[in-house]
Structures are given as structure tokens and as C-alpha cells.
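WARN retry 2 of 3 for item q-0093 after timeout on previous attempt; input resubmitted unchanged.
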Amino acid sequence: MFSYRSCRLVWLFLNACTATYLSTYQQSGGQPKIEEIVVNFITEIEFHPVMYAFFKDSNIDRFSEKISEHICMLTGGPFEYTGENMKQVHADMNISESEFDYGVDLFIVTMTKANIHHTIQNKILAVIATTRDEMIYLW
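OK item q-0093 returned
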């Protein structure tokens, strides 16, 4: 026979099992936070001589739109990425590992400025890292 306490424990267990899963996109703060991160990232690029060289001839409005879509998609948001694939975008840039690392460092700074908690930053970086091989050393 179940006691009140055991019934309560079963209820708590079942309730925990049905808890809603929050995507990294949702945990980060959704579209407003992604947009804040992207604006911060563009600002950081402008003042970083190594990174600016890769973006100086870019259409910044398009870059902002596409990187926002891509981050949203990668983190489980409701957006579809409509830009070119990463190999196409980064072809002929010959980005080195250290240059890629500069970008990651700047991205961490931008997330920190947007008050994204470090555990969420790590989740975002983990999904972005999956695109690394599509960005570096492409001829």
C-alpha cells in the first residue's frame, strides 16, 4: 500500500519526467539575445585588425541577418538558415586555426557582454564548433 509520502514522490518523479525541454536558443534568451550577440560581434570585428580583414568588403546587413539565422538554427531556434553553406561562404579565405580561434575569442566576449551565462555560452560554442572544419584552410 502506498503512503502519502510515496504517492508524492511518484507525482514528483512523473512531473519531472514531463518537464519541458528548453533548447539552447531558449536558454540563451531567444531572438533578442541572439541579435544582441551578433551586434556585439560585428562591433568587436570592426576593432580587431585580424578579423576585420575578413569582413571589410562584406555586406554587413546581410552578414548580420545570416549569422543570426545560423546561430538560431544551430541552437534549436525556430529559424531556418537561408544562406550559403559554410564551405561556400569561407572558400578562398584560407582561415587558419589561430584566426578561427580569434573569432571564437571575440564571440565569447560578445556573449559575455550580452550577459549570457557561461554554461549557455559553452552550449552555444559547442554547436558552433561543429562548423569549424567548414571554415578553416579552405582554398
